[in-house]
């Protein structure tokens, strides 16, 4: 029997039908099959073009088909793509060097995703608690409305019950603090006392509704953690790699963490995650933690190309400038449609449009206008375009969004037709 071409349809089934037949239903997918991308644009199988302000959910740092990304991927694939961590490989060392030279961290552990990076941080905190602080039953504090991943410990760390439903028993040793609330956080710290070994927070809560951290809160927490020997760990999976207009999210807060995690934008779409730590708490020894694919030459070579391109093309600065421009445009639309929009909030190129109606309605209406957006909670729409986005593309996105909001503003009949 001749092999099937990867491009050949299986019978007359559509892509959506094949998904429904063979792929687990873990996503409520939009009725759209994407087949090609270039820059900040993607095309579906009918040839329709869309402005991509999702970027793989803050992942496609350089957009689609960036020449530097393609070159790094191609060259490394032709040389060596995977050898396991039983051996040294140069791209892993080079990427670790770049990350430590451009951050407050001293050591890096590579894995494949943000959830894995956060799992590694949780294990690191527990080992630090046992071996350095002598805590037998340590507790890690995370924030209400946080999101740290879908694996079991990361899911437990996620302070949103809707994600935890039906997955009990959860991992013990976690409690939750109110985000940006000094008094509320202090109360939880006092309740657990010496058992608190680490605090894990997002510099800006992404899935929780694009809620920026308060510098005063984080600076207070940094002082408390330093005084008590508690590790301050930051989840930079979504906000790292220049997305906020600063290289790292913590740069917006005026602090340095002891540990932080990366993924998403680090390699611009190739699966990679990273756990970064300062020397004093990098307590892992051989056999403590591992990842078969983590740090493979292919992912690290592409990650290094993304890092170099961030600097060569001034993309962190671009995220700051175009982020301000996007925020101004969204604020004008908020004034134009007060019956639909409450406010705009965010940093750089992660902006949230806080709505008076369900976010899903705006996302679907924008899709009809050729603009891809993603919700961040039930009533916030998130804007996370590639860091290469231009003011002209932002203008175009704002025009499409205005049309989408106008279609929703006409009344309940228009809204109901979009839900159908």
Explain what you see.
This protein has about 425 residues and is an alpha/beta fold. The chain folds into two domains: about 15-65 and about 315-420, Aspartate Aminotransferase, domain 1, CATH 3.90.1150; about 65-310, Type I PLP-dependent aspartate aminotransferase-like (Major domain) (Aspartate Aminotransferase, domain 2, 3-Layer(aba) Sandwich), CATH 3.40.640.10. Helices cover about 40% and strands about 15% of the residues. The chain has helices at about 15-20, 55-60, 65-80, 90-100, 115-130, 150-155, 160-165, 180-190, 215-230, 295-310, 315-335, 360-370, 390-410, 410-420, and strands spanning about 35-40, 40-45, 50, 105-110, 140-145, 175, 195-200, 205, 210, 230-235, 260, 275, 340-345, 350-355, 370, 375, 380-385. The strands form four sheets. A seven-stranded mixed sheet has the order 4-12-11-10-7-5-6, sandwiched between helices. It has a four-stranded mixed sheet with strand order 1-2-3-15. It is globular, with a radius of gyration of 22 Å. Mean pLDDT is about 95; it is low at about 410-420.
Outline of the structure:
By secondary structure, this protein is an alpha/beta fold. It has 14 helices and 17 strands. The strands form four sheets. The chain has a seven-stranded mixed β-sheet, with helices on both faces.
